Amino acid sequence: MGQTMIEKILAMHSDRKIVHPGEVINVRIDTRVARDFGGANVVKHLRDKSLGINDSSRTFFTFDCNPTGSDQKYAENQHICRIFAREHGIKVFDINRGIGTHILIDEGLVFPGATAVSTDSHANLLGAIGAFGQGMGDLDIAAIWNSGKTWFRIPDSVKIILNGAFQPGLNAKDIILNLLARFGANRLLGCSVEITGEAVLKLSVDERITIASMATEMGALTILFEPNLDVIRYCESRVCQKIDPVVPDRDAIYSEIFEIQASEFIPMISRPGKPHDAVAVNEVKGTKIDSAFIGSCTNGRLKDLRITAEILKNRKVAPGVILKIVPSTDKIWNLCLEEGLFEIFKDARAMVSNAGCAGCAAGQVGQNGPGEVTISSGNRNFPGKQGKGDVYLASPPVIAASAIAGYITTPDDIPDKPAVYITPKKKITKSSEKTIHVKEKPKVIKGKVWYIDQDNIDTDMIFHNQYLAVTNLEEMGKYTFSNLKGYEDFAKKAKTGDIILAGRNFGAGSSRQQAVDCFRSLGIQCIIAESFGAIYERNAINAAFPILSGPTLKDLEIKQGDILEVNFMSGDIINMRNKKKIQGSAFSEVQMEIYQKGGLF
Q1: Residue 430 within any structural domain of the chain
Q2: Among candidates 568, 573, 572, which has minimal Cα distance to 449?
Q3: Which of 237, 380, 414, 442 is the most buried (most CB within 10 A)?
Q4: Looking at 310-314, 382-386, 411-415, 545-549, which range is the least confident one?
Q5: Chain centroid, CA 428 distance in Å
Q6: How many C-beta atoms lie closer than 10 Å to residue 219's C-beta?
Q7: How much is the pTM?
Q8: Domain check: are 542 and 409 in the same one?
């Protein structure tokens, strides 16, 4: 009885000659990878259990989720991984290299018939070259790094035969979107899918990667292609040795076989929310867009970017639309530079970023905001995956054409003039002045004191820059002092009505308003310091948040939890426990007016 591709690959990496669907076997893993997403947890598991590395020459870190290092947590995790790599002789493909799964192919670390695992859920795109790749959790990866193998259940195999030829100009992304439309997200759940047929024979490495990278969105365990001569030559040039690819036996048994006419495939697009909700591009043609994105592990290859350049050449991205382009690897980035593709992109007013996962992983360009409509070459458009707006999934040529048009369209129907947003003119009417009666705020307050005997508490200590995107006042409070050593739990312990007492230059640093508003969010009544940063002082006064300076605060002989009485009119500050009193800075006329109004406005 013959074996399918997946059965042969897994049997070769076990102690079995023949395996059957449903059997659980131990599989040797040729290449073991952790990314900056999950990598630090892999390190933690190994350190907590005092485990070693089975074979450091087969073990790698790939930093592709946040290749800019712009997120504090990612930067921390990346550094944890770098230190561990130095200790154990593990190679790191750092933030300057690009998407890990693509690097594995291009560096010859994975080849036809090999096995590989990664903390990347799209590691199964290695099926593009006839290799078995799997995304796994950090606990799984840690165990494999230690032992070099793992258990695996042999999946059912399905064969899809694409007969005939594709329509001229059909993109690889269209092929997988057509398959998603036919099979949905769970029709092939957990199966190993082999795609074959005369229509597939001429597909390039880049095109096969596009199709295989969306196996996860189909619910399939993997999509495997039998390597053609071009793929074998490509991989041999990377591995620098002859490759004998794994192919299915002629009498292999499949749970299902589907025959489809390739000529039936048409340009497709996935509507927001579900990758498998794919329809003909014509069904949504004319939909206005705000942004466009070309990149990700699905469509950041050189072939994709060459097609994009052909469409953008001597054209401009529509006014009000931003086109973001991210190559999948640094080698591809350099080839784009050498071939003049970047010049075309920039002339077209597109934005180009360094290689990496981009918006798909929320660590780079490609995210969108609420209400924003994006057309993207990513593999997922689940709500919130690429931002808070709506995301359509399409091929690079459709995206490039749409970016030029300002709405969803196809390369053969790009208008001479793009669509633009027209803001309707509003009739301005002069409103009559109204007298607003505001209840007078207290000029004398009492509250429990938090005494922080430190100078130069800057705005990053008060409200760290990783939270600057927070605009909701109610949410700000929980991040207060999260970056001030010894006071990381301040937000949990502080009570409404509390007063803060601090040293010189409180609020030094940036102009961020959140460093004031976070205290308002918590209900802090007042901050007293020996002095304030100039910008911070203005921000506090304009937000009607009471602050006073008192140059002799130590004279109050404060203990944590003392009750202070503060008079905004006179500047008197009294410790109610020992009746010690100092003279602080009274509110100026302007400060009192803004305070009573409830703010600058």
Answers
A1: no
A2: 573
A3: 380
A4: 382-386
A5: 42
A6: 18
A7: 0.81
A8: no
Q: Are residues 384 and 516 located together in one domain of the fold?
A: no
For 15-52, b/e burial (b = at least 16 CB within 10 A) is ebeebebeeebebbbbbbbbbbbbbbbbbebbeeeeee
Note whether residue 522 is domain-resident: yes
Tokens, residue 357 = 């996962």
State how far the alpha carbon of 286 is from the alpha carbons of 118, 289, 566, in Å: 40, 9, 63
Is residue 215 within 8 Å of 244, Cβ to Cβ?
A: no
Phi, psi of 41 (to 5 degrees): -70, -35
Which of 366, 396, 413 terminates a domain? The answer is 413
Query: Is the distance from CB of 209 to CB of 175 less than 8 angstroms?
Result: no
Give the range of the structural domain holding residue 380, as residue numbers without chain letter.
Answer: 268-413
Instruction: Tokens 């640094």: give the residue.
Output: 330
Instruction: Among 264, 279, 295, identify where a domain stops.
Output: 264
Query: Is there a single domain that holds both residue 317 and residue 214?
Result: no
Asked whether residue 232 falls in the same domain as residue 341, the answer is no
Same domain? 173 vs 31: yes
The number of angstroms, rounded, from the C-alpha of 196 to the middle of its chain's C-alpha atoms is: 33
pLDDT tens for 45-95 read 999 999 999 999 999 999 988 887 777 788 899 999 999 999 999 999 999
Residue type, 193: V
At 1, list the tokens.
């009885």
Same domain flag for 124 and 27: yes
CATH number at residue 543: 3.20.19.10
Q: Give CA 213 to chain center in angstroms.
A: 17
DSSP state of 128: G
Q: Would strands 268-270 and 278-280 be described as parallel, antiparallel, or unpaired?
A: antiparallel
The contacts of residue 558 (CB under 8 Å, 6+ apart) are 449, 451, 501, 575
Q: Which two tokens stand for residue 261?
A: 């006419």
Task: Convert the pLDDT of each residue in 261-316 to its tens digit.
Answer: 999 999 999 999 999 999 999 999 999 999 999 999 899 999 999 999 999 999 99
Q: How far is CA 209 from CA 126, 324, 551, in A?
A: 7, 21, 66
Q: Is 425 within the bounds of a domain?
A: no
Q: Is 546 inside a domain boundary?
A: yes
SS3 state of residue 594: helix
For residue 57, give the DSSP letter. G
CA separation, residue 109 to residues 116, 230, 300, 589 (Å) = 9, 18, 20, 71
Clarify whether residues 297 and 256 are in a common domain. no
Query: What are 207-242's pLDDT values in tens digits?
Result: 999 999 999 899 899 999 999 999 999 999 999 999
Give the CA angle between residues 18, 20, 21 to the nearest 5°.
150
User: Do residues 10 and 27 make contact, with C-beta atoms less than 8 angstroms apart?
Assistant: yes
Question: What's the domain count of the chain?
Answer: 3
